[in-house]
Amino acid sequence: MDIVEETVERGVIERRFDLKVAEDVVPGIHWLPEGATGPHATVLLGHGGTQHKRTPNVLGLARRLVRHLGVGAVALDAPEHGDRISDPAAAEAAREGLQQRIAAGRGGDGPALGTEERMRAIAERTPKHVAEWRSLIDDLSTNEQWAGGPFGWWGVSMGTSHGLPLVAEEPRITAAVLGLNGLRPGSEHMADLAAKVSVPVLFLFQWDDELMTRESGLALFDAFGTAEKTMHINPGGHIGMPAFERDAVEAFYVRHLRVG
Amino acid sequence: MDIVEETVERGVIERRFDLKVAEDVVPGIHWLPEGATGPHATVLLGHGGTQHKRTPNVLGLARRLVRHLGVGAVALDAPEHGDRISDPAAAEAAREGLQQRIAAGRGGDGPALGTEERMRAIAERTPKHVAEWRSLIDDLSTNEQWAGGPFGWWGVSMGTSHGLPLVAEEPRITAAVLGLNGLRPGSEHMADLAAKVSVPVLFLFQWDDELMTRESGLALFDAFGTAEKTMHINPGGHIGMPAFERDAVEAFYVRHLRVG
């Protein structure tokens, strides 16, 4: 991990780094409590589709977790997101497509997070991005100041598409916040991954999500293999999750990560 | 309100009182923070079927709310519950019936909280008990030390059967925790009441509740007229709600009552 820049704001160190994984350079940010030493838990933050490692909700959650819980937080740009966009026109089209889908309202049983093409693109990039997260966990685990874990996952919407295989198969992750995603009829691979999840899960869902049906969200919750899982449902659309769910996220990590 | 007995334990005053309502004497308990003066919020605790005003989960929640939030808490024996049981054999039969239903596992679309006869009995007693709660709110509102409100409701299972009409129609209640109950096909009266609820609601549901279907729980959540409502779903049966939901209840009242 190469540290590119380090700033401090109100007790939170923000460390821009580049992580080399195979042929790629993956830009990321590591937030840490100022002055903390010794091993700390770290929450991995997977941003949503068309967003990036420092998108406002990721930045806000990272700072909050560092300040309130004294844990570290880390985010990566997903492939073709943030600083990794190689085709700006395609990225812009994806953003517009997502906005149009949300503006159009409920799309019934259509693809959860965009067109079939967009869903295929996310699915194709997922194994690569999961490998990048694993590589980051390797790196953090051997960092003397931040070794040890445990690691938590947070990622809703595309952050769940990327997080699900990681949470299902990476034993160093001990708790996961997922949500804004669903299990469509025919998504056997996703159902298989969900069944493998054995760590506590908080699953956040919006009852009027324009991008997926209620049934698909309930089906994904149902599919998680873990004995400890909680689903929180609020009215409103894909981007309307109430701010107080941040409190629930925090309480969840307090229960399941070594904090403070 | 006649105070029958007052004890103090670890900072919590527990005041046994009798409330006269029409021809009845309704036994209740008021928990208050020791040494507190001036108007405080109060949470009304509606116990479940076959339980009573000092059943362990009610007592535990009351003490916790007093200690953590500095609010008051109050519970009443429902008609034919606790000290108001006039027919011990019938009360014992209700308890056994409930236990048998839980032991038998999911009963499909049957009555939510017992036999049809038991459901009728609860429904028949509800208006009377709602009037008792209103009378208690009147009394608390004119108590110089505890005047002012706001009042919160907490009651799951039968505590929701009793609480729903109160929360729907009593403007002095500003937030409600409900749950472990559902809207069966044909329960138009309950649906009408749910539609009238305009205060924030936290709705707690068990995904494998032996006494009601998932669909009935989702239907009740859906029916609440309020814009601010959250449903928490956990795996497990009717009496298996995870202890951490107490944290969620507390956070909910912190948002919606004047606490501290």
Order of helices and strands of chain A: EEEEHEHHEHEHEHEH
Our count of domains of chain A comes out at 1
Poorly predicted runs of chain A: none
Task: Please identify the top-level CATH class of chain A.
Answer: Alpha Beta
| Global mean pLDDT of chain A | 92
Helix percentage range of chain A: 25-40%
**Largest interface summary:** A-B, 20 and 20 residues
Total count of helical runs of at least 4 residues of chain A: 7
CATH level-3 fold name of chain A? Rossmann fold
Question: If you had to describe this structure to a student in words, what would you say it looks like?
Answer:
- Two copies of one chain form a homodimer.
- Chain A is α/β, with parallel strands linked by helices and 260 residues long.
- Chain A has a single domain, classed as Rossmann fold, CATH 3.40.50.
- Chain A has seven helices and nine strands, in the order E-E-E-E-H-E-H-H-E-H-E-H-E-H-E-H.
- In chain A, strands 1-2-3-5-4-6-7-8-9 form a nine-stranded mixed beta sheet, with helices on both faces.
- In chain A, strand 8, helix 6 and strand 9 form a beta-alpha-beta unit.
- The radius of gyration of chain A is 17 Å and the shape is globular.
- Chains A and B meet through helix 6, strand 9 and helix 7 of A and helix 6, strand 9 and helix 7 of B.
- Strand 9 of chain A pairs antiparallel with strand 9 of chain B.
